[in-house]
Give the backbone structure.
Amino acid sequence: MDNLVLILLITVIVLLVMFIGLLAFFGHRFLKLKEQNKVEEKPVVNLNDASHEKKESISPKLLSALRSNDKTEFQSSVYCVDHPDVFSHGKCAISYDALCENCLTKQENILIGRKYLDLFLDNDWVELQMVKDEKELRRSYINIKKRLWEQEDLPVIVQGHFKINIQDDKVEQYIVILSRQEDIARVRDEFSI
Ligand SMILES: [Zn+2]
């Protein structure tokens, strides 16, 4: 009989301790949540409507831009942008996205994403310039090309091109700029060529 009482007593004490523990745990979480809400509420209260809206509309864009930058630097050169678990095979000359073998096609030695194949085939491409490849020049050309594509859907092909110099048998690398017939003036202007 005494044993039974003792067991009951111990059970009650254990349950009580567990109850207090749970109470402390949830109480702590509740306080933490409240504190977070306070922190989150603060800027909303301090901002007027206009600047608040501005903040709301800019920050997701900025975030996605940062994320896509991150991707370009570290991922898209390794993995296909449409198949994140498949290694990329090269960059599309139109979108400059890294794509896997299935997503790419080669047209006259130019790598084109399959989704932009029609855009490539339906247009006449004119070679606007061929200059010796230099790192700085290539970087600035690619930046212009990316900007025109991303902001205006204007496709320009900036392509590396190898030539063998017969005199000294050395391979020389050139940059070639191709534009659609209708964009020639615009592209010349943008690239200052
Ligand atoms: Zn792919």
